[in-house]
Amino acid sequence: MTTTGRFTLPSEENFAEKTKELAELWGADAIRNSDGTHLDEAVLALGKKVYSAYFPTRAHNEWITLHMDETPQVFLLTGRVLAQDSTVDVPLMDSFYEEQLQPNRDADPHKYWEVIDRTTGQVVDASDWTLDAETDTVHIANATPMHEYTVTFLAYIIWDPVEMYNHLTNDWGDKEHEIPFDIYHDATRGFVLDTFRDWLKDNPQVDVVRFTTFFYQFTLLFDEKHREKIVDWFGCSCTVSPKALDDFEAEYGYRQRPEDFVDGGAYNSAWRVPRKAQRDWIDFLSGFVRRNVKELVDMTHAAGKEAMMFLGDQWIGTEPYKEGFEELGLDAVVGSIGDGTTTRMIADIPGVKYTEGRFLPYFFPDTFYEGNDPSVEGLDNWRKARRAIMRSPISRMGYGGYLSLAAKFPKFVDTVTHIADEFRDLHERTGGVAAEGELNVAILNSWGKMRSWMAYTVAHALPNKQTYSYYGILEALSGMRVNVRFISFDDVVSGGVDDDIDVIITGGPVDTAYSGGDAWTDPKLVETLRAWVRGGGALVGVGEPSSLARFQAGRFFQLADVFGVDEERYQTLSVDKYFPPVVERHFITEDVALADGVIEAANAARAIPLSGCGGGQGGVVGGIDFGEPIPNTYPINEDVTLIRADNGQVQLAVNEYGEGRGVYLSGLPYSAANARLLERILFYASRNEDKYDAWSSTNPECEVAYFPQSHVYCVINNTDQPQTTEVRLGDGTSERFELASSAIAWREV
Q: If you ran DSSP here, which 8-state letter would residue 438 be given?
């Protein structure tokens, strides 16, 4: 087994001897610096490939302090203020962090700002309000009493959000705040290019320029208590300037309103159904960003170095899954790995020579402190990523942060040694080729390919109460024996469904980008999907799939006839709903232990209108967690096969639809049992039940990956406990495996 290579080690000043020791132990062939650290000569002399983090738009306060009108800007929405008489004052900076954000008083507020009567939605005429620049307060005249008013104003970002986060996390004290700058301004753009040109000349020892990242930060704004206030890993809010707004108007023929950015307080979250103004701004921004990225990449190559992009920090506008990304000429993309989904987000990026994962935990004091065991997080992170790497390999791995912190934890050091060796062994055995995928699965939403592996996300790898029921589907798929792609509603309307797709998964909460919103008012979308399923396709709906916020044509789910399920929205309460019996056995639940009495209780209650199933508490039934409940879902007729239901809501049902099948699922947080349930749903829905057994495991905590090109397969234990499983091979025979915690076992075929 190879014990060296494919590993990037972070280092820092005055730590050369220990760096050398850990580089040998972990098999590092590359050394990198992290934010706030530098590599000294003794480390550079180790003979490893040298990565250098490079920040094109920060760490040069000597420039930007002389050009403070060229920092990035953002539209901010004030709190709502109630008018009690004909005048009302709106303070701008209440709840915003003044060390990070500062109102732009330079550009004409009456041209670039907006005051709105939120009770009526009407824009207040510019003649009816004034800015008091001394107090950062907007005075509104001719207000309507008992109406609420807001101001949307431009603000300079005067502290780089990521450097600020690192500063606060690591208690950097009196360290000078790094001020970001915006290359949309010609003078600053020239400075950035000249500075990089000089840097390349001054750093001949660097082999890989790790751009961290380029020009525009994802939306990361803090409140007056230094807490995160607005976080959107896909947000384009921090990308505006008067010049950019004027140029957009000249190019697109209409002007972006401030409201187009603050979006009533949603700040264009990726969960919002994307609107024309939002899509146009993304196109405008990505065109500008990519032109300048290409220039930096070309300069890097001309200097004989590789160009690597970090998928994080200022990545906005690069759009790695948008058409044309490969034209940038980047050699590699590296990103932080938080789970299987974020691993795939990196690994599946097209148009680069290799991809690299920065594994967790980050070597920062919020994890590496006395009494904590970072090896627990390290192994958990590895197990999640390993599932995904089997299906879409990354070429390299590494860590970030202060190596001196990690070195104080011997157990963690040993854990990384094991992980690095296993990572290299995986590549050696498979040749870096993905395991076989047996089905082709498409995720259907408003964003499609442009947000591959980015659906159902708010912050990077951090599902919350409103998202985990959906995000778990991506996490399950990230390591499943299927091939995954992302398609949009527009794709289906314009081009139909690709012939090789076996299953489509769609859904999410009503009126979001993932369930589709008004996309379902287009008859062509409904017609196309119905015809595809009737012809033998398989459609899986999750949560509130194909839903419209308004009651249309007697349905809430516009494809209720395909799923066999609809949701009562208090419009048809006078019409009784009847639940068929819950089936005792089904292919989909064959691997799931049934809770005692669930089926009996459900069947006993099935004739009660809308409370058709009892048994179970919350979302967990028989070892399966269906997440946050979708109340009042019901079978549209008694021909539907009801597999799970609880307290008047359908959790899992299947429906024959012509030659195809529809499946309804209320939600699916990630767990081994839930991933197994989804896998069986996909094989059943696509009528591939006969293919299911080959290369499967009887224990859902263990998964099998088959590599036909290498004539090997492996069995992985995805837990921190020993596991036993029977593995069914491709020839119909089986083999028993006893696996230690986190273990992986290899066999030749």
A: -
Which letter, b or e, does each residue of 552-591 get, where b requires 16 or more Cβ atoms within 10 Å of its Cβ? eeebbbbbbbbbbbbbbbeeeeeeebebbebbeebebbeb
Strand pairing report for 30-33 and 7-11: parallel
CA distances to 64, 92, 138, 215 from 240, rounded to whole Å, are 17, 18, 21, 12
Per the structure block, which two tokens stand in for 386? 């390993």
Q: Which of 192, 195, 188 is nearest to 244 (CA)?
A: 188
Tell me if the bond preceding 213 is cis, omega within 30° of 0: yes
Q: What is the pLDDT of residues 582-621, one digit of tens each?
A: 998 999 999 875 333 343 433 443 333 333 333 333 344 4
Residue range 168-187, pLDDT digits in tens: 878 888 889 999 999 999 99
Q: Write the pLDDT tens digit of every residue in 328-356.
A: 999 999 999 999 999 999 999 999 999 99
What pLDDT shows up at residue 746?
98
Q: Give residues with Cβ within 8 angstroms of 320, minimum separation 6.
A: 309, 311, 333, 349
**pLDDT at site 35:** 66
The H-assigned helical ranges of 535-579 are 560-563
What is the fold of 7-62+184-227+271-430?
TIM Barrel (3.20.20)
Residue 246 tokens read as 């004027």
The CATH number given to 696-748 is 2.60.40.1180
pLDDT tens digits along 418-466: 999 999 999 999 999 999 999 999 999 999 999 999 999 988 877 888 9
Q: Cβ neighbours of residue 387 under 8 Å, at least 6 residues apart?
A: 340, 478, 479, 703, 716, 718
Distance CA 205, CA 49 (A): 9
Alpha helices in 38-160 (DSSP H): 41-44, 61-64, 109-112
Fold topology of 440-691:
Rossmann fold (3.40.50)
Closest listed residue to residue 229, CA positions, set 92, 78, 96, 77: 96
Q: Three-class SS of residue 102?
A: strand
Which pair of tokens denotes residue 743? 């273990």
Round to whole Å and give the CA distance between 650 and 628: 12
**Number of neighbouring beta carbons within 10 Å of residue 543:** 26
The Cβ-side half-sphere exposure at 375, using a 13 Å CA radius, reads 17
Q: Which of 313, 502, 566, 625 is catalytic?
A: 313
- The one-letter amino acid at 38: H
The domain limits of the chain are 7-62+184-227+271-430, 440-691, 696-748
Same-fold call for 7-62+184-227+271-430 versus 696-748: no
On whether the CB atoms of residues 361 and 382 are closer than 8 A, the answer is no
CB 116 within 8 A of CB 149: yes
pTM: 0.94
Active site residue 313: yes
> What is the phi/psi pair of residue 204, to 5°?
-65, -20
